[in-house]
Amino acid sequence: MTKIIDGKKISIEIKEEIRLEVEKIIKNGKRAPGLAVIIVGENPASKVYVNSKVKTCNALGIYSEKYILDSEISEIDLLELVEKLNNKDEIDGILVQLPLPKHIDEDKVIEAIKPNKDVDGFHPINLGKLVIGKDGFKSCTPYGIMELLKRYEIDLNGKDVVIVGRSNIVGKPLSIMLTNENATVTLCHSRTKKLSEKTLNADIVIVAIGKEKFLTKDMVKDGSIVIDVGINRNKLGKLCGDVDYENVSKKTSFITPVPGGVGPMTIGMLMKNTVKSRMEKI
User: Fold this and answer.
1) Active site residue 97
2) Is 169 found in the same domain as 241?
3) Is 193 an active-site residue?
4) Which DSSP helix (H) or strand (E) runs through 247?
5) CATH number at residue 197
6) Active-site annotation holds for 53
7) Which entry of 97, 159, 203, 242 is annotated as an active-site residue?
């Protein structure tokens, strides 16, 4: 029988652990961890994410600052704000909500954040540390996936894993994290030939490409584990993932739903990174 990997439940557990850790920091006479969140423009989805992050900070006792900037802001002005926050003692983590307007170079902004405040885990130095197995900040969504697998006691040792999607945010860092846990990883993308042959041989399939119901039941073997990172809206406006959940779940041993699977984990891991940054300074 298929077990549903409940990301909502696990994220609540993680947030409670973080809340207690923050409480302990404050009881020891130290300042609370601090997170600065920057949003540029009026992207509705970005606004929802940012507000959710600030709300979570408040619930966990983490100090937060929110900067809402005009979409016409110059790249220089944005970089100046990042530099100001780099040098602000109360701030342990800086998050610039993506995407940014086209006239701003996202890579330049990400690289301007001090690596020890890069709680999103996107800075090349943190990604480089991940590659060579050194401690750094991990990208929040793949970090959340790894935490789900760990808490459901899914052994990765020697497992064949197929990731569909090679983004810098999910696919690539996740492939390294899994390799570091002794999984054998195949990273697939839009130009991969005979994709179904690869997914059918996988013990674990992870899909992160943003296409509704892309992974179908004929693409997975019986007893496999399926992780759905996609967040899409169908024709009725209902949230759904990259996996045909209703049919694929009949063949799997573990599966994540959408919503309530990987999604809730991302903010939890962001908070975990923020507390980690604070602890490194104590």
Assistant:
1) yes
2) yes
3) no
4) helix 245-248
5) 3.40.50.720
6) yes
7) 97
pTM reported for the whole predicted model: 0.95
Instruction: Give per-residue pLDDT as tens, 105-149.
Output: 999 999 999 999 999 999 999 999 999 999 999 999 999 999 999
User: Does 97 share its domain with 156?
Assistant: no
- The number of angstroms, rounded, from the C-alpha of 57 to the middle of its chain's C-alpha atoms is 17
Among candidate residues 122, 84, 117, the one with its CA nearest the CA of residue 100: 122
Q: Which domain holds residue 92?
A: 29-114
Q: Tell me the Ramachandran region of residue 213: left when phi exceeds 0, alpha when psi lies from -120 to 50, beta otherwise.
A: left
Q: What is the pLDDT of residues 229-246, one digit of tens each?
A: 998 888 888 889 999 999
- Which of 92, 117, 118, 120 is catalytic? The answer is 120
Asked if residue 42 is part of any domain, the answer here is yes
The CA dihedral of 46, 52, 53, 54, to the nearest 10 degrees, is 110
Q: What is the structure's pLDDT at 197?
A: 97
Q: How far is CA 153 from CA 59, 132, 199, 241, 264, in A?
A: 28, 25, 22, 24, 19
Residues 180, 218 within the same domain? yes
37 backbone dihedrals φ, ψ, rounded to 5°:
-120, 130
Res. 49 pLDDT band, cuts 50 70 90: confident
pLDDT in tens, 53-79: 999 999 999 999 999 999 999 999 999
Mean pLDDT of the chain: 96
41: left (phi over 0), alpha (psi -120 to 50) or beta: left
Does 176 share its domain with 226?
yes
